[in-house]
């Protein structure tokens, strides 16, 4: 065997080892639970959003394949004016939310409908991040008056397309939401919403797993 053949063989072995390592890494990741960030989109004083959020969290926490984090627009308290030099406390708040979004494999946005759209505070939180969203799936749970927040969701799909996300087809939607929960936050007729949540979570999980596996082999955009 010539030395040229030898080095070609070593290179091939090194490549095979690197591929095997990458594949093993991807396989190891594939078994890890997916990190889902639930984003509460309303920051209105007296908001109904936490009732919907708690209902959703109770559904997500039944899944052993998911670990959940909550990003609450009300608690994030992000300024609406963009500044290149934010004050230290604002910088800290921005960094905290950015880290949460970055760490997530998938998102569920809980949004009410305001004037046929979604809340301004939610848009502010979305617009302050870019790479953190990319190549991840986004699902929607919406609520409102007669529309159940469906128009807010359709607008959010346009926004999230710009951020290189995949939006999940099926949603959970609560029309006249407040009439369907008791004072303890229990849904009065849970079978329908529970079934819809299962479909949503199954679709979100499929996309999150597929995209995480794909990114382990080839980083997005490369
Ligand atoms: C400013 C404003 C605008 C609204 N516009 C709509 C609307 O266009 N369609 C709808 O179905 N409900 C509408 N609603 C009803 C809300 O979606 C509903 O009250 C919901 O519970 C609000 O969410 P929150 O309590 O978490 O803020 C509106 C409510 C507010 C405060």
The CATH architecture category equals: 3-Layer(aba) Sandwich
In N-to-C order, the SSE pattern is HEHEHHEHEHEEH
In this entry the ligands are: flavin mononucleotide
Distance between the termini: 37 Å
| Count of discrete structural domains | 1
Can you summarize the main beta sheet?
A: 6 strands, parallel
Description:
By secondary structure, the chain is an alpha/beta fold. The chain has a single domain, classed as Flavodoxin domain (Rossmann fold, 3-Layer(aba) Sandwich), CATH 3.40.50. It is 49% helix and 15% strand. It has seven helices and six strands. It has helices spanning 3-31, 49-60, 73-76, 88-103, 120-127, 150-162, 191-217, and strands at 34-40, 66-72, 106-112, 137-143, 166-167, 172-174. Strand 1 (34-40), helix 2 (49-60) and strand 2 form a beta-alpha-beta unit. Helix 1 (3-31) runs antiparallel to helix 7 (191-217). The structure holds flavin mononucleotide. Flavin mononucleotide binds at residues 42, 44, 47-49, 112-116, 143-147, 177.
Brief sketch in words of this structure:
With 222 residues, the protein is of the alpha/beta class. The protein has a single domain (31-217), classed as Rossmann fold (3-Layer(aba) Sandwich), CATH 3.40.50. The protein is 49% helix and 15% strand.
